[in-house]
């Protein structure tokens, strides 16, 4: 099943859970034209940057991340020298857990910021603040989410070759 682009800028596309069909672009009613089942909103994957015929809070079939209600609000391109709000791309329990993903993003040329970096070291702060937030420039948020969704582990055959070198 391939993702489908939004048909309505207000609430996003809808589909029928029973017959798995997306409502046509000109469909206005709350019920499926085929079976009469109530139409529900499609979930949005921030990594795919597209909608799936699955409800919000289901897992994206490609990335195993929770689907959202819709895309984040569009942001205007920001010229260098102006200030902007950082966009949170992932939350980690502490700064140590965020170190490798942060390094990976910065290796790709994406500037990062960790909100709560100094607060995330002690256990009581971690519980109180909900962890640390890995943040990027709004223009790089989609690219950063794609990079963070990728697996960084070695395939099993490469691990065996690496162990032979030790």
Describe the overall structure.
With 166 residues, this protein is α+β, with helices and mostly antiparallel strands. The chain has 2 domains: 1-71, no CATH class; 87-149, no CATH class. It contains 4 helices and 7 strands, in the order βββββαβαβαα. It has helices spanning 95-107, 123-129, 141-149, 156-165, and strands spanning 14-16, 39-41, 43-45, 50-52, 87-92, 112-115, 132-136. It has a 3-stranded antiparallel sheet with strand order 5-7-6, with helices on one face. The protein has a two-stranded antiparallel sheet with strand order 1-2. The chain has a two-stranded antiparallel ribbon with strand order 3-4. Mean pLDDT is 76; it is low at 1-10.
Features:
7 strands, elongated, 4 helices, alpha+beta, disordered N terminus, three-stranded antiparallel beta sheet, two-stranded antiparallel ribbon
